[in-house]
Batch of 3 targets.
Target 1
Amino acid sequence: MPEPEPPFPRRVALVGQPNSGKSTLFNGVVGYRAVASNFPGTTVEALRGQIRLGPHRVEVVDLPGTYSLLGGDPAERVAREFLLAGAVDAVVHVADASRLERSLELTLELAELGLPAVLCLNMADEAEHRGIRINREKLSAILRVPVVATVASRGQGLEELLASLPQARPIHRPPYPSDVERALAAVGQALPREEPFRTHRAAQLLAGEEEPPPELRPVVKEVRGKLGACRGEDPALALADARHAAAARVFEAVAMVGSARVGWRERADDLLMHPVVGFPLLLLVLFGLFGSVYWAGSALEGLLAPGLDALSEGISRALGAGPLAALLRGAWDGLVAGLVLVLPYLVPFLLLLAFLEDVGYLPRAGFLLDGLMHKVGLHGKSVIPFLLGYGCSVPAVLTTRILDEERDRILTAALAVMVPCAGRTIVILGLVVRYVGPWAALLLYLGNLLVIALVGWALTRLLPSESPGLILEIPPYRLPRGRNLLGKTWLRLKGFALLAWPLLAVSSAFLALLEALGWAEGLNAGFRFLTWPLGLPAEAGVPLVLGVLRKELSLVMLGEALPGGVAALSVGQMLVFTVFVLFYVPCLATVGALGRELGWKRTGLVVLGTTALGLLLALLVRGLVRG
Amino acid sequence: MSFDLLRPLTDLPPGTEGVLVGVHGGPGASLRLRRLGLRPGARVRTLALGPWGGPVLVEVDGCRVALGRGLARRVLVRPNGADAGT
Ligand SMILES: Nc1nc2c(ncn2[C@@H]2O[C@H](COP(=O)(O)OP(=O)(O)OP(=O)(O)O)[C@@H](O)[C@H]2O)c(=O)[nH]1
Ligand SMILES: [Mg+2]
């Protein structure tokens, strides 16, 4: 009797080691929806997309990368829990073909899990570059699943991969040494009959990864003891070694390793990660980033501003006076501010950030800064969330999931929200650089880092570190691809276009209406407790408070609230305003992300702490400028 | 093989090749390192030392991994050529 065809998979999950190209592949099949970058740990949440395959609708899920189904950081655990939740019909195992031997260890864990799978050998181009030739037929025969080669970044092989989905089967597992097999079987037999992932659960129990339920405790203890004694090492290590040995055998059977080509990608680190030269180059990269954003932004702004100003004047004249006209004018001004003040700086910034991410520079910065980070109680992996924080605090907070220790995650998230995000950078560029000078902005950035370091140093006294330190894979340099740069920038801009821009218009209209009705004064009087000690005009009250919604909102609102625009402020007032906006309460979206990652109590502390810090520093600046 | 030929990763000048022999300490650190291919028997090469007490950059299986000093101190390596003549 022929085996019945398994039903067409309706939900397919992408599983693989970090940075193997899952998100790139996901984007290739469902359209650009996931941020893909060249460092391990880009994806920290499950992301779903739909595709149609002939008559079938298939849900594709991009998961965080995971080195192993055992242990790992919270992002890796998201992937494992998703698979174990039982809602996945098939797995596309995205393996980095240029690191096939290591990837096969995860393949074997997926075989233990027993879900139907197809094996995708991604980065076929890099495997070739490294002189690795893989016999796919043979690999497919050994593992008894379809094996497809792809270059996800160029969209190659994706159709063949999708076409292989109906052939997804549980991966065949070559046997481990007999003592390990016996141990797995002994624990497996003791598991309840309805256990869907028998071998996987047995392996987890054997490795001591999960606490056995009371009825299994004696069996697990005995088997673990036996295996440990037999191997002379921890059962978790014995299991890992068994997988490695099996993976190595498969690799040797299917791969031919020739000589690797050595080019700029291998040599660049001699310079960029050089203990002496690397650090100045890092500073150069960061100055270059902000310098070119300012340069490109002001050029773009100069192009846009005159036309839009003329248009605004015309509209203003046509609208005349009255509350309705004020409302419309306010909304229009908000839209223009978004176009003139925000977009010209945001677009170049996001493009350059995407470029650094895709080249693979972020983990290098982590390497170079690890030593300094230790002085404030963290290590180099925290550099990645910090650097992402210059773009937006929300992904910065979420990316703390790539840190292994909870204490490091709390500390990194609390500090990363003080890194000036793009919104705050716009305040710095639009106020400080323009009216005070670039050197003042530079001082602000450096001062900000100093404050973060001091706060980190102080918090470390409260939460002493027991972290084992940095373990960070440094990926090869890659040439960024235009599609990824633009797709990623667009994805991040969409957040601005769909949310912040309307918000700017609405708040601006609201403010204009308040003024037209003569209510603004009353409200601002209520915020005098804030503006008075800071020495700011009363009109700054509403803008400062609205900044909780979006940081750049403060600046735009301020410009509209003050009769003479922001230029009416004194230099001292500008600095005080900027410093306060820089530090006080991260915006609402960030507070939401913090709440999810740290819990609401700690988030409350962050909100209170940053507000107090913002006030304190702003007062300090006020004193300094006057003194 | 004699044990005084073993060196912690942190003691090896950049460019040294060798074989990883073991990791001091509990199984936790060993397991984490194994996930990235740093297991006993692996051929490793040191590439660089980070500034200010920063990490050690090692190459294993063509992959580059940065290891914090504290951890790298616990990774023991037998440098190639160290046991020549024994
Ligand atoms: N040369 C080459 N680069 C690729 C290929 N596929 C992806 N990349 C690049 O590899 C890097 C990592 O890609 P991602 O899609 O973010 O990897 P991921 O598996 O989602 O990573 P995590 O989310 O961190 O687990 C990006 O810079 C991609 O452009 C490929 O087939 N060939
Ligand atoms: Mg990803």
Target 2
Amino acid sequence: MFIRFTSEDVSAQNQVKASVQRRIRQSIAEEYPGLEPVLEDLLPKKSPLVVVKCQNHLNLVVVNNVPLFFNIRDGPYMPTLRLLHQYPNIMKKFQVDRGAIKFVFSGANIMCPGLTSPGGVLDEEVEIERPVAIMAEGKQHALAIGFTKMSAKNIKAINKGIGVDNLHYLNDGLWKMETLD
Amino acid sequence: MAEKPEAVKVLYCGVCGLPAEYCEFGPEFEKCKPWLIQYAPDVYPDLLKDSDGKEVDKVSDQMQSTSISAGGSSTSKPEEVKRLPGGKVKKKDKKEVIIEKVVRNKRKCITTVKGLELFAVKLSDASKKLGKKFATGASVVKGPTEKEQIDVQGDIAYDIVEFITDTWPDVPESSIFFIEDGKKVPAA
Ligand SMILES: [Zn+2]
């Protein structure tokens, strides 16, 4: 999704009203309760919060020019990988086997067998259409952020096809956009 | 309210910007290698094995004895210094100032200065002086190896050597090095 994302894909950039800012903050707090204690540091009530609308219905939540969260249409907010790296325990995690890493790096979606093989790990509680951190066999830090196309149980049971959509991965356009001018 | 989670510090590669453990999947692993050997030897232990281990140890031993004597005389041996990027760098024991230009997204760049504290220079003081001299932002931050370093905004690598030797005469020019394209180059 973010493969060729550049600042040219930005279609509108707006500082949002206080009410919208509050709503965004609240839905992030609900989605990631582990982040609540640092939310005031990340999204200070007094700093302007900017929502950048991009192509493909992608919205970025930006504070002080740093993209911190994104969502698609009205979907759940997800942290950028740089933010997730700092607070790795805020999301549920899947792990792909080592063989899948290079495909994820090329932007491919995550196929079930990469999660069910001996190098893969599934969190069985994860339902369909949920944000999930994609970890990798033998690696400490997250490789990608995905959105499940099947529940973890079905990924295990069906074990073929796309299990998780790859929304944001290391070295994609959003990763490279450390700050937004 | 739950306890404040501590932000994890991730070691990002100084060359490709990925977490160091993912350099091997990045576009320029070869270019990352010298940086990784210096800053992330634990992540890729095989890289150290690749370069001849014995040879490397010998070089770093020589380096240590050289830098001890370099304190008084200015007869350092740059040809040995140049060989270091291929091998293990024992930073802890060496008295050196390392200057590196780091490019942050396209045009922005910062110049990092490491090692001044080894010459009894107070980093907070040095940071202030650098900021003033180059009319820019400068701050003391924890570097990737958990050691403190000074980050100065902008590309000041060109003028900084003279400023350091003028301001802190205890720092000999022969102990100042640049990192250029992942290689360590003497400033003198
Ligand atoms: Zn790298």
Target 3
Amino acid sequence: MAPVSRGFRGRRRQGVDASRVPPGQYVVDDFPVLSAGPTPQTGLDDWTFTIGGSLDEERTWSWEQFVALPGETFTVDIHCVTKWSKLGTIWTGVSVDRLLEDVDTAAEFVSAFCDGGYTTNLPLEDVTDGQAWIAYAFDGEPLEAEHGGPARLLVPHLYLWKSAKWVRGLTLLDHDEPGFWETLGYHNRGDPWNEERYWSD
Amino acid sequence: MRPEAARAKTIVVEVPDWPGHLAGQHVDVRLTAEDGYQAERSYSIASAPEDESLALTVERIDDGEVSLYLCDELRAGDELELRGPIGGYFTWQVADGGPLLLLAGGSGVVPLAAMLRHRTARGSRVDTRLLLSAGSWDDLLYRDELGRLGRDGVAVHYTLTRGAPPHWSGWSRRVDAEMLREVGPGPRTQPRVFVCGPTPLVEHVANLLVGLGHDPRLVKTERFGPTGG
Ligand SMILES: Cc1cc2nc3c(=O)[nH]c(=O)nc-3n(C[C@H](O)[C@H](O)[C@H](O)COP(=O)(O)OP(=O)(O)OC[C@H]3O[C@@H](n4cnc5c(N)ncnc54)[C@H](O)[C@@H]3O)c2cc1C
């Protein structure tokens, strides 16, 4: 049991459904930014998305081809390891299921790679079955660069560092390969409902 | 607890069995109300690894839940629940070398102060430039201490964006490319760059640096909020 902080009452938010807020998180209305370096600026002409690694044949889409894929608009809650959660965010993108539709692979893990060199690792079963998207619009507008545009991975059931910004592809792997934050002390899986923030959790 | 500039306080914490930290890391502070309600925020460690006790500096945000409690309510002797040290990326040790370019807005100077204190504690002479952006002279954290760093070979620059005192010889505008060029060191010397502070400032400064030719991989950023970005 945590010690009570003398004199702390807290500012409870009215009208927030507590069952949607994981332990240790608080709800914000705006959209904070967290990244480890400068925001990359990739022109859409140079942008491609690639699925590579252990599969029958690598797939690559240009920007035009990518946004022509059947997309989905979906509403999800997102949770950042720096404690904020944002409820009911609306995104548009292509589901990872769709991208993997006719991919033949025995891989059990993926590593997302991005402009700027960022990577993050996930078990394949965390990005399939309608749980992950490559999103290119937020609230009906093109995704801004500081929030990961032109496109970011979105895996809302895990802490947001797993939703790699500026994503350029997924590498299918038969083994797990800890990514950027995961080698720097952050939890390998990052489930907010179990408060899997750091290595020690 | 001691006041630090107009709107901030430094909190010195005694932590039994503190495992040690690297300059630039932070801790998570968790507050618990009597009914179990909790609020948790991150605060950079201001003290050097060499210092005897752990210090945090918290800027008071008027409608802030945790910073208000820490600045207004917390008293000497109170218990505080901390987790850390956290973060292995936004860190610098003397062994990492330089040159070092440190850029901060507001309370973003806190982790950079830990790096500077570490540098001083170790007697390092690595080429170090510091540029701080603050609203006013009274908002500048660690003003006296930073003023003395010149002796150790740190070039300290200030820019005040909301009004400068009379006879002000520093800058009084938003950070721009020309300012960064003057602060140096240029991209060719491949400085290790640390940018920390409110998100819009970090975005702005990091983009300027990349525009000036700095290798994005050497530019490390830490964004504190406010959450407007
Ligand atoms: C890695 C990391 C290290 C940090 N280190 C420090 C530190 O050393 N010292 C420090 O003072 N803060 C630091 N912060 C910021 C700190 O974690 C809190 O966000 C801040 O104290 C505000 O919390 P609050 O509960 O008082 O405000 P909240 O109740 O969360 O927010 C209240 C209002 O203030 C705005 N706001 C939130 N954060 C800021 C901000 N930083 N500046 C201006 N407005 C803001 C919000 O948009 C909101 O409108 C750090 C953040 C991170 C992620």
